[in-house]
């Protein structure tokens, strides 16, 4: 069995998601420039450690490789595989999966606009009025930090259609606007890993973003926190995809997610 989970706002959280009375029940998850920027519930950490000794735990993230490596708490959780850069990169045994890298490179070359061409097209509509900064992610995709109040939604909607025709998708998540090739997918990467593990299909996954929905398509079970973008934007569609939701929001929801996983493991 595999348990594949998104990290940010699913298992680890920034300080704003932690209630004042729960500060003593959390642990440091990530440090940047000497400052703690992400936390994990102590109970979640304990449960995840136990789960990772029963099944294959696969951390999944849209973060770049460099950003992923900052999450020090993962060094204490057993795992052979990890998915980073939204599925563009698979780590196996601490090294990049070269077979997957080759697959992604061939698909990027044949199925979509190049990164440079996609960025050039975005420059035609972007403006300092609403785009604060733009960054590339491991030479696979790019994203912008935007002022959500100033985004020209009609123009952006037309641009989304243009990018879709070029093999790219646009995802607006909080203050980040992602532009990602369709072939760079968490779901495809997870399927690749499950095929490597003797064609294993007994997969549980979790996540909060619409970018995580692709994992639901290759999983037997998928659970998302109540505060998630999935819950807010997809509504009844999510129910049709057999997506479960926690009853709690914030960092407490991570404990509920892992209890869900524990229950499914015990039923196996």
From TrEMBL:
Gene Ontology MF term list: catalytic activity
Taxonomic superkingdom: Bacteria
Annotated Sucrose phosphatase-like domain residues: 46-216
Gene3D superfamilies: HAD superfamily/HAD-like
Family annotation (InterPro entries): HAD-like_sf, HAD_sf, SPP-like_dom, TPP-like
Protein's name according to its UniProt entry: Sucrose phosphatase-like domain-containing protein
Natural source organism: Peptoclostridium litorale DSM 5388
């Amino acid at each position: 069995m595999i348990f594949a989970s998104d990290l940010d706002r699913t298992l680890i959280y920034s300080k704003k998601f932690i209630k004042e009375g729960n500060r003593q029940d959390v642990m440091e998850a990530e440090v940047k420039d000497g400052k703690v920027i992400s936390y994990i519930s102590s109970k979640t950490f304990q449960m995840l450690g136990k789960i990772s000794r029963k099944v294959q735990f696969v951390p999944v993230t849209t973060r770049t490789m460099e950003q992923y490596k900052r999450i020090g708490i993962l060094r204490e959780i057993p795992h052979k595989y990890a998915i980073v850069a939204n599925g563009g990169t698979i780590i196996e045994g601490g090294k990049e999966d070269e077979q997957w890298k080759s697959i992604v490179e061939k698909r990027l070359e044949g199925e979509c606009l190049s990164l440079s061409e996609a960025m050039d097209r975005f420059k035609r509509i972007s403006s300092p009025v609403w785009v604060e900064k733009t960054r590339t992610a491991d030479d696979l995709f790019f994203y912008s930090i935007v002022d959500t109040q100033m985004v020209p939604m009609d123009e952006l909607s037309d641009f989304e259609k243009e990018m879709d025709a070029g093999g790219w998708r646009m995802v607006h998540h909080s203050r980040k606007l992602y532009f990602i090739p369709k072939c760079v997918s968490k779901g495809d990467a997870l399927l690749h890993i499950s095929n490597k593990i003797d064609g294993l299909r007994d997969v549980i996954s979790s996540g909060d973003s619409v970018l995580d929905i692709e994992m639901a398509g290759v999983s037997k079970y998928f659970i998302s926190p109540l505060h998630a973008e999935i819950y807010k934007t997809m509504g009844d569609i999510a129910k049709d995809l057999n997506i479960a939701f926690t009853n709690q929001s914030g960092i407490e929801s991570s404990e509920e997610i892992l209890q869900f996983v524990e229950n499914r493991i015990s039923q196996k």
